[in-house]
Every structure is written in structure tokens, then in C-alpha cells.
Amino acid sequence: MTDHELATKLKELADAPAPPPRIDLDRARRLGGRRRRARTTALVVGCAAVVTAAGLTAVSVFRTTPPPAPPAVLPTPAPVAPAPTDNPLVAKASFGWLPEPITGIEYGSGGHGDYALAIGRGDLAPMIWLAVYDQEPPLDRRHDMGGRAVRVPVRVGDRDGYWVTTDARDPLNQGNSYLRWPTPDGRWAELNAYYLALPDLQQVLLRVAGEVKFANRAVPLPLHVTGLPETFRVADVNLWRRPDADNVPWRAVLQYSSNGALATITVTLPGGRADGLGTPVCTTKNGLRACVAIDHPQAAGVTSQELLSRITLLGPDESKWTTHVISP
């Protein structure tokens, strides 16, 4: 191509209209505006987040942390008042309410256990035994349930107790009923009822249990004894009320061991029988009969007659009986 031809082409190109642009400027402006707004929003939000976090951090640093809650304090069981020392028969608990078939209350203390017994009349007298234990007794305490004893939970007053039975479907255990519950002073109480047939018996026994009073209480007795030998130790003391078996309304029996000997004091109304081993020596005074039997007087250190002479009988009026039975 000559110089003249090249110049002609360049002139034609310069005079030709420009081609349409490949970029849509309006669309580009719209997109650019959106991106600027997005960046601005992100920046504002980011700054706000930083400020908020800083504020929270400042509040967390300067806010006073509340002290931890003090540990819960469990109530301490009330202490048990000491038992009196001048009465060999002390009840750890007393009945507050009893059903109608019950006609009397017996008490026992010593080697065969400490108990109160609510008892009725008849050859198969209804009985409700009440005992208190320092610790929860084994489930089958008497070993007469053949390893099948189970608990049936029940509410006793304001405490969680349970029935002991061989069949959970029968809390009354076929009429030989056991009900246990913790006492306010940290011990355990048990009712054992049998020969007791009443409508709604479960509720009856729950009411009996709910109204039991727990405290060491000296049981009044119809005698006063002066000068027991120092070697005498309480073996068993009982106040029986079984007129159908004894032919008298009650019998008080005090048994002591001494150097292997057994000394038994029995006080009844006239006509009652004497308990114990050995030949009894008896006297009747002030409307009562007292007998003393000692199986080995030499070991006991006192004869039956000597011990009998130290006994004062207080008469059949129970309101005149004493809780201060033994004195030096």
C-alpha cells in the first residue's frame, strides 16, 4: 500500500461513526450503587457490633458478681431427753389415739425389747405393738417372711414410711401388719398389729401411727423399792393388762439378774399369780399382793424375805402410783 492509499484509509476511519459501547453504563451505575450501599451497611453493622461487644465487655467487667447461695442446712433431729434412772420401766413412745377394740396399754422394757402394747380382750385379743429403734431395723426383722419381705411406701403423718409385707398388693400382710416410719428425733418407729379386724384397717393404723408421741416417759408403777443390791441389773420389767388370762386386771413384774441369779418381784391385786423362778415369798398390804422369788439367793446376795421387806405397796388406785420406783 502506497503512502497515498494509507492516508486515504486513515481519513475514512476517522470520519466513520464510533461503534456502540460494549458496557451498559446505566447497568454498571446501578450495580455500583448497590455495592456501595452494601459496603456501607456492612461497615455500620460491623461498627455497631464492635461497640456492642465492647459495651457488654465493660458491663461484664464492672458488674458485681452476686455471692454464691449458702448451702442448704438440714434440720438437726431433736435430742432425746435422757431416761429417768429411778424407774426401770421407761416408754420411748406413747399412743395418742387407739381404735375401739383396744381396752388397755401394756409396757415392757429389758432383754425382750422396749415396747408399748395396745391390747383388747378375748382369747385372740387384738394387739398393736409399738416399738422404737435407734436405727432402721432390717426389713424382715423377725425372720418370719421367708426372704420375701418387700416395702410398700406410704405417708405417715408428715413423714415417708412404709408397710412391710410379703405381697406388695397386700400391705396389711394377711393381718400380721407392719408399719414403719422415721421419728422426729432421728429414730425409727414400728407398729405390728394382728388379731385386729376393722373396716379400712390401713387408715386406722395410719391414724394410730400419726398420733404417736415420742419421748422417754417413766411408767407409773404400784410399788416403791428401797435399797436394791448394787449387783442387781434390770433383766425385764412388764406391766401386763390381761384379765382374761390372769384373772386380775393387771400385773407388774420386775426381774433383775445378779451374779447369775434371777430375782423376780410381782405385784398384783389379790388372786394374781406370782412370776419367776424359785419359791415365792408373798405379802398382802394396802389392797395389793407382792411376791418375791429368787432362784439362787446366795448369788443374789439377798433373800426373798429381805427383798420383800424393802417393798412399799401403793394400793390399787393407779392415780397414786409412782414414777420414782427405786431409791437408795
UniProtKB/TrEMBL annotation:
Q: TM spans, by residue? A: 40-62
What are the boundaries of the region Disordered? Answer: 1-22
Output compositional bias ranges, type Basic and acidic residues. 1-14
Q: Does the keyword Transmembrane helix apply?
A: yes
Question: Which keywords does this chain's UniProt record carry?
Answer: Membrane, Transmembrane, Transmembrane helix
Q: Does the keyword Transmembrane helix apply?
A: yes
By what name is this protein known?
Uncharacterized protein
